[in-house]
């Protein structure tokens, strides 16, 4: 194939792709290469950065706060995914029966997902503040002790978890509702005629039907959990004693509070690698799910 | 859009060909990129984004509405006097660093910027500040501890100490009376010693069961304020040469850690007021959660609804000592450095410092600002006490909180203090002090 023919054949495709490639190169590839370069330096954000090779990554391996943040991030993900998906599915199943007011309730549940995370976190702080929060005022009002929402690691983690479940469930509700609209009515009716109860119909008919949606939502929640910053930053600041520290908040604290931008960037790249691996895994699972669905049909 | 039929028989769109669409797309992309070319390329020699004219000083600052008005008055006065226009660029406090740093990295720094004393060392170390040519002439007018905050060990000054802020102990007057605390001290010489302070806290806690007595303002990157206690006990965190942490920690640091741990162990402060706590002490005081609180002068305007209070000097041990707050004004090296330095000098004349401090509820750093010139609209009597408290800010403490790695030191200190305050009460203080010194030492030497 001559060069002219090749250009004729592929030129249009490259021309169509060019704007996107330029945007990706400028706003993704260039900053990413810069981030990798920064992670190999000691950099205060000012003046000349000093190259240190892989020293930042070596320090990460021996940094107990990094491992604490990693464990917290993974633990939060493990808890958050079933809670968000379970609450989202439960609410969606209740809402699908409604004929009036469903759109309004959908909007209500989706609201915390679409408003600023800082607003959600401030609301969470208002509810869970240890000294002047709504919950503790109510508890003290009936003669009980307040909960140490900011000074106890367990209570602090619980408050963050509750707010994140509230904030993230809205998306699951809306997506599950859309998927339920396409539920196999014939199978559901046949199962009912065969004497299957509501739980059996849910377990054997609806959940298999919702599997691709569940995989999609699980990956979205995993990725979002790894990127969670605002809620933790506002509600607990990562404390007490790093009990609610996540990889992203630790990256910020190192990069901007302690002005160790090379180290902070190294943490950020670890998060990127983990999220990238998770996404790749999602593609594999998704592809397998679709293959299975095709075979089942 | 209409269509006709090609030779193949398939309908073919007319009016917009693929070539035309591609050309439009390409043109649009180029135009879009051209539109954002200035900010993208400003670090590569294009100065098109500079918002100020060449003969205009760009001053980056943050502040309350009152502070911004005070800066506007300074800028107007400078223009009237010198003919040099000043463009004020106000940014939120949280974005001060990124705004200035981005400008510096992009090769378009502001001519003058407001900078916390803790950050002066960082910028000085990075070589972006223009040293004051007439530092020797200016120096005698300022209190030595504030001048030290903007100087390097050789004596060169890289900014002017525009104003300071510091902390006092606000006491609920009625609660103090009910707790039988007696006459409250008014000046640093008569301040409560540590034992008396703890005793006062215990009495107040006993008076209000279930509620803590006090709250200390070491949250929100304010862990360096804990060093007041160390300095009061004649201790240090860093070595005299500031090249690392003192190891093993001295008796003063251990005493300060022991005392402040006791505040948590005895429930005299809310456990949520550790260094990572997000609550501010003035909020707790206003809400009545605590009967006393360590509050900085700039927060006095936020005490609406608080019980009647008295500003009491910080507790003292071997000596009185207070934290260094406030801000300097620094000039960057560049084509307008001379005018920038003239603006700095203008901002710190006795008259202008008095006017700024009065308007912004700040404290002067010059020693020749007469008390009568400070007309504070909010709590003027208390502000007079804050002025006296600021005189107890000490140079050895100032030198430790303005090292180039001050941000990392504060972060490590905050972590170590939180472990001490909220961790296992059985852990010996000496071990916790050594852990703090170790992590701070690594942060300084990194």
Counting H and I runs of at least 4 residues, what is the number of helices of chain A?
13
| Tally of individual helices of chain B | 18
- The share of residues in helices of chain A is over 70%
Determine Rg of chain A (CA atoms, Å). Answer: 24 Å
Find the count of extended strands of chain B (DSSP E, 2+ residues): 10
Q: What is the beta-strand fraction of chain B? A: 5-15%
Quaternary organisation = heterodimer
End-to-end gap of chain B: 67 Å
For the largest sheet of chain B, list the strands in their spatial order: 4-3-5-10-6
Structural class of chain B: alpha+beta
Low-pLDDT parts of chain A are: none
What is the second-level CATH architecture of chain A? Orthogonal Bundle
Q: What is the 3D form of chain A? A: flat
The helix/strand order of chain B is EEHHEHEHEHHHEEHHHHHEEEHHHHHH
Decide which structural class fits the backbone of chain A. Answer: mainly alpha
Q: What is the first-to-last residue Cα distance of chain A?
A: 43 Å
Helix content of chain B: 40-55%
Describe the structure.
Chain A: Pfam families: BPD_transp_1. Chain A: Its main location: membrane. Chain A: It is a multi-pass membrane protein. Chain A: The chain crosses the membrane at residues 12-33, 74-95, 107-128, 155-179, 263-283. The complex is a heterodimer of chains A (297) and B (446). Chain A has 297 residues and is an all-alpha fold. Chain A has one domain (69-296): MetI-like fold. In chain A, 76% of the residues lie in helices and 1% in strands. Chain A has 13 helices and 2 strands, in the order αββαααααααααααα. In chain A, strands 1-2 form a two-stranded antiparallel sheet. Chain B is α+β, with helices and mostly antiparallel strands and 446 residues long. Chain B contains 18 helices and 10 strands. In chain B, a hairpin with a 5-residue loop joins strand 1 and strand 2 (11-13). In chain B, 50% of the residues are buried. Residues 1-51 of chain B have low confidence and may be disordered. At the A-B interface, helix 1 and helix 12 of A face helix 1, helix 4, helix 5 and helix 17 of B.
């Amino acid at each position: 194939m001559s060069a002219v023919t090749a250009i004729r054949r592929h030129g249009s495709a490259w021309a169509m792709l060019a704007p996107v490639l330029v945007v990706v190169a400028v706003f993704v590839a260039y900053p990413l290469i810069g981030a990798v370069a920064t992670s190999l330096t000691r950099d205060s954000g000012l003046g000349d950065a000093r190259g240190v090779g892989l020293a930042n990554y070596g320090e990460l391996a021996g940094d107990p706060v990094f491992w604490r943040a990693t464990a917290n991030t993974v633990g939060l993900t493990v808890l958050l995914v079933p809670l968000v998906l379970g609450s989202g599915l439960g609410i969606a199943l209740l809402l699908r029966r409604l004929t009036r007011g469903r759109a309004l309730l959908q909007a209500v549940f989706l609201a915390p997902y679409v408003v600023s995370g800082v607003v959600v976190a401030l609301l969470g702080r208002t509810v869970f503040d240890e000294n002047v929060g709504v919950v503790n005022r109510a508890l003290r009002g009936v003669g009980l002790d307040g909960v140490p929402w900011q000074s106890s690691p367990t209570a602090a983690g619980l408050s963050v978890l509750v707010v994140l479940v509230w904030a993230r469930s809205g998306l699951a509700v809306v997506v599950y509702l859309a998927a339920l609209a396409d539920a196999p009515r014939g199978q559901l009716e046949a199962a009912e005629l065969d004497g299957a109860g509501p739980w059996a119909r849910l377990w054997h008919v609806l959940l298999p039907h919702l599997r691709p949606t569940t995989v999609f939502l699980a990956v979205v929640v995993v990725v979002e959990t790894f990127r969670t910053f605002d809620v933790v930053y506002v509600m607990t600041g990562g404390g007490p004693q790093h009990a609610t520290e996540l990889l992203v908040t630790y990256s910020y604290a190192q990069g901007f509070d302690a002005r160790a931008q090379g180290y902070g960037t190294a943490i950020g790249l670890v998060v990127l690698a983990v999220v990238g691996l998770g996404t790749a895994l999602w593609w594999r699972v998704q592809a397998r799910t679709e293959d299975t669905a095709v075979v089942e049909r | 859009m209409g269509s006709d039929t090609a030779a193949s028989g398939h309908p073919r769109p007319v009016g917009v060909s693929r070539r035309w669409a591609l050309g439009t797309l390409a043109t649009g992309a180029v135009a879009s990129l051209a539109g954002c070319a200035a900010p993208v390329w400003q670090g590569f020699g294009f100065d098109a984004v500079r918002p100020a004219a060449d003969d205009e000083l760009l001053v980056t600052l943050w502040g309350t509405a009152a502070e911004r008005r005070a800066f506007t008055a300074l800028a107007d006065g400078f223009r009237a006097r010198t003919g040099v226009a000043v463009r004020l660029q106000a940014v939120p406090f949280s974005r001060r660093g990124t705004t200035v740093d981005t400008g510096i990295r992009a090769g378009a720094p502001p001519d003058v910027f407001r900078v916390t004393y803790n950050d002066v060392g960082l910028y000085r170390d990075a070589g972006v500040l223009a040293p004051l040519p007439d530092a020797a002439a200016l120096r005698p007018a300022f209190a030595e501890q504030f001048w030290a905050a903007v100087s390097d060990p050789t004596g060169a000054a890289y900014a002017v100490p525009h104003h300071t802020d510091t902390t006092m102990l606000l006491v609920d007057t009625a609660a103090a009376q009910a707790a039988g605390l007696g006459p409250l001290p008014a000046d640093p010489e008569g301040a409560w010693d540590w034992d008396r302070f703890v005793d006062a806290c215990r009495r107040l806690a006993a008076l209000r069961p279930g509620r803590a007595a006090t709250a200390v303002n070491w949250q929100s990157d304010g862990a360096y304020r804990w060093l007041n206690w160390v300095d009061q006990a004649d201790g240090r965190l860093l070595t005299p040469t500031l090249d690392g942490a003192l190891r093993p920690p001295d008796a003063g640091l251990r005493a300060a850690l022991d005392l402040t741990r006791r505040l948590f162990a005895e429930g005299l402060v809310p456990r949520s007021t550790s260094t990572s706590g997000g609550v501010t002490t003035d909020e707790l005081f206003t809400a009545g959660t605590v009967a006393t609180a360590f509050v900085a002068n700039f927060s006095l305007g936020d005490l609406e609804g608080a019980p009647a209070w008295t500003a009491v000097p910080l507790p003292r041990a071997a000596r009185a000592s207070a934290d260094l707050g406030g801000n300097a004004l620094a000039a960057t090296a560049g084509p307008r450095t001379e005018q920038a330095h003239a603006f700095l000098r203008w901002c710190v004349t006795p008259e202008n410092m008095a006017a700024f401090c009065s308007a912004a509820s700040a404290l002067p750093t010059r020693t020749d600002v007469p008390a009568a010139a400070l007309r504070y609209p909010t709590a003027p009597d208390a502000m007079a006490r804050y002025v006296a408290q600021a005189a107890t800010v000490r140079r050895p403490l100032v030198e430790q909180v303005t090292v180039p790695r001050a941000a990392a030191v504060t972060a490590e200190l905050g972590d170590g203090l939180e472990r001490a305050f909220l961790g296992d009460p059985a852990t010996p203080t000496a071990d916790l002090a050594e852990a703090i010194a170790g992590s701070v030492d690594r942060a300084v030497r990194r």
